[in-house]
């Protein structure tokens, strides 16, 4: 065991209570030696998953308040997004500067603004702006309960763009899962219309958000070499570029005038909520990486699907909404299709890892 692993294990032991025996000091082969590491791993995974759920759900509810609260009455979605990007860039720089001051941030790379790198990242930043802006605009115009369905076509766009841009085919079973997602999406749109809560503006931005999320994933892979493969540096440059590009958008849409007449601009509680929203926006990227690191990409996707289900139920309860059976069916179709797609892709990846020669034959037999 390396020194770093030993240090992490000791930190976990101290965090869980210093009185318990260190599993590394127990006799080899004893029941305690086998049980303790498993319990620690299970507890660590549970904590990380709960942290991801809490951060993601809290961020959605908080953004809904900032974007569409009757008590706040702030019609400046671009400014809210700009502030969150500015805070994220500042936190990245602050933590990077702290890397030289203590061991807690010692693993973070040093950050400095290189105009050449910033220009190279600019095409991805344009997609990133489209992604975060359309996400917030979708949330502004639809309810939190429908938010998951409104942005549910990301998987479908992943399949479509992978074929159009990367020439990657998809198996028949994965396509069937995408069909279930599309069916759930249109059923959800129909039921929102039947209940009188449908916003075509929200639907448009939900579809645009799904497209931008897929494009962001593709372009991220292409741009990563520019920042030496560092997601941390890419996050910093993306948010710095976004802050610059948001200024003309706010000017064009008249949001500076809206802010000038906003009666809560000097309120500490408003800026506290804005700051908290920015912190959650920064933290979601970190906890997402933690969940993938301590579980797997497949488990992360399953956890995200379950989180979306919990978020929908919480939104219906919190906002005291009444939904029809078909409305709930649309949500179950979207969640079930997303879970099925994740499961099918996981099985395909495992089969390819066991026998790489299967990949080409599968594409010929079941691919499109």
Structural description of this entry:
With 368 residues, this protein is mostly helical. Helices cover 77% and strands 0% of the residues. Helix 2 runs antiparallel to helix 11.
Give me the oligomer status: single chain
The poorly predicted ranges are 4-30, 361-368
Please work out how many helical segments DSSP would assign: 14
Give me the secondary-structure category.
mainly alpha
Order of helices and strands: HHHHHHHHHHHHHH
Radius of gyration using CA atoms only: 23 Å
* Count of extended strands: 0
Helix content: over 70%
Strand content: under 5%
What separation lies between the terminal Cα atoms? 47 Å
Overall form: globular
What's the overall average pLDDT, rounded?
A: 83
Sheet with the most strands, sense and barrel status: none
Task: Furnish the topology, listing elements before pairings.
Blueprint: H1 3-15, H2 31-68, H3 77-98, H4 115-141, H5 144-150, H6 154-166, H7 172-194, H8 200-223, H9 231-252, H10 255-260, H11 268-294, H12 297-318, H13 325-354, H14 358-366
Quickly describe the structure.
This protein is mostly helical and about 375 residues long.
Name a few traits of the molecule.
368 residues; mainly alpha; 14 helices
């Amino acid at each position: 065991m390396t020194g770093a692993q030993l240090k992490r294990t000791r930190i976990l032991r101290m965090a869980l209570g210093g009185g318990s025996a260190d599993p590394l000091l127990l006799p080899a082969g004893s029941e305690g030696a086998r049980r303790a590491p498993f319990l620690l791993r299970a507890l660590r995974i549970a904590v990380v998953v709960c942290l991801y759920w809490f951060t993601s759900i809290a961020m959605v509810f908080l953004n809904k308040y900032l974007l569409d609260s009757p008590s706040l009455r702030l019609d400046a979605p671009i400014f809210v997004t700009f502030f969150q990007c500015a805070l994220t860039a500042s936190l990245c720089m602050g933590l990077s500067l702290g890397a030289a001051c203590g061991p807690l941030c010692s693993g973070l790379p040093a950050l400095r603004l290189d105009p050449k790198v910033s220009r190279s990242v600019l095409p991805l930043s344009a997609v990133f702006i489209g992604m975060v802006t359309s996400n917030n605009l979708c949330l502004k115009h639809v309810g939190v309960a429908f938010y998951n369905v409104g942005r549910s076509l990301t998987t479908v766009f992943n399949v479509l763009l992978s074929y159009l841009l990367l020439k990657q085919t998809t198996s028949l079973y994965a396509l069937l899962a995408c069909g279930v997602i599309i069916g759930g999406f249109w059923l959800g749109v129909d039921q929102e219309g039947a209940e009188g809560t449908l916003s075509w503006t929200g639907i448009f931005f939900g579809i645009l958000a799904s497209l931008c999320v897929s494009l962001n994933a593709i372009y991220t892979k292409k741009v990563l070499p520019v920042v030496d493969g560092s997601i941390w540096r890419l996050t910093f440059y993306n948010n710095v570029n976004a802050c610059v590009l948001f200024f003309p958008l706010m000017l064009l849409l008249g949001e500076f005038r809206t802010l000038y007449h906003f009666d809560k601009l000097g309120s500490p509680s408003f800026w506290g909520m804005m700051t908290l929203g920015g912190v959650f926006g920064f933290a979601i990227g970190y906890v997402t990486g933690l969940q993938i690191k301590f579980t797997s990409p497949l488990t992360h996707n399953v956890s995200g699907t379950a989180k979306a289900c919990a978020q929908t139920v919480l939104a219906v309860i919190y906002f005291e909404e009444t939904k029809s059976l078909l409305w709930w069916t649309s949500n179950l179709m979207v969640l079930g299709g997303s879970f099925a797609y994740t499961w099918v892709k996981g099985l395909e990846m495992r089969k390819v890892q066991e026998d790489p020669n299967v990949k080409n034959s599968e594409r010929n037999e079941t691919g499109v």
